[in-house]
Amino acid sequence: MLSPSVPAWFELPAADFERSVRFYETVLGTQLKREDMGPLQMAIFPNAQPNPTGAVVHGAGYTPSPQGSVVYLNLSTDLTRALARVSGAGGKVLLEKTQLPDGMGFFAQFLDSEGNRVGFFSQQ
Q1: How far apart are CA 124 and CA 18, in angstroms?
Q2: What is the DSSP letter of 29?
Q3: What distance in Å separates the CA atoms of residue 58 and residue 20, rounded to the nearest whole number?
Q4: Contact, 12 vs 20, CB < 8 A?
Q5: pLDDT tens for each residue of the chain, 124 residues long
Q6: Which helix (H) or strand (E) holds 23?
Q7: CA 108/CA 100 separation, integer angstroms
Q8: What is the secondary structure of 31-92 as a DSSP string?
Q9: CA angle, 72 as apex, 82 and 35 as ends, to 5°?
């Protein structure tokens, strides 16, 4: 029997790879690692092992959409600063910082530069 676990990997589709990479590097104040995986272009989010991570991906079959699953990026600092950079980087804030019950932390949602619905999570 399989038991649920945290995701091991996520992929955020990009119509314009460089625009999407610039968006996340600007909003998160970090640098993504660019990789070519066969026909796919990827920009991998930094992470500390063994934590899961993911990538911005451009290639056949990868179509940005605000529909479907929402990936939440777990920020090590208050999500307010990253969320404040979303609009200026070409995205749109959909849900401002919102407190979860019982001290579980905070979350917010936005559309990235490609039109994907993405979330932030932080403890602060």
Answers
A1: 31
A2: T
A3: 9
A4: yes
A5: 666 777 889 999 999 999 999 999 999 999 999 999 999 999 999 988 888 899 999 999 999 999 989 999 999 899 999 999 999 999 999 999 999 999 999 999 999 999 999 999 999 9
A6: helix 17-28
A7: 10
A8: --EEEEETTEEEEEPP--TTS-EEEEEESTT----SSS--EEEE-SS-THHHHHTTGGGT-E
A9: 85
* 9-122 carries CATH number 3.10.180.10: yes
Q: Residue 114 carries which DSSP code?
A: T
Closest listed residue to residue 112, CA positions, set 51, 45, 49: 45
What does the block give as tokens for 54? 């993911």
**Predicted TM-score of the model (pTM):** 0.93
Cis peptide before 50 (omega within 30 of 0): yes
**Six token digits for residue 42:** 């990827």
The one-letter amino acid at 83: L
Collect all residues with Cβ–Cβ distance below 8 Å to 18 and sequence separation of at least 6: none
d(CA 23, CA 115): 12
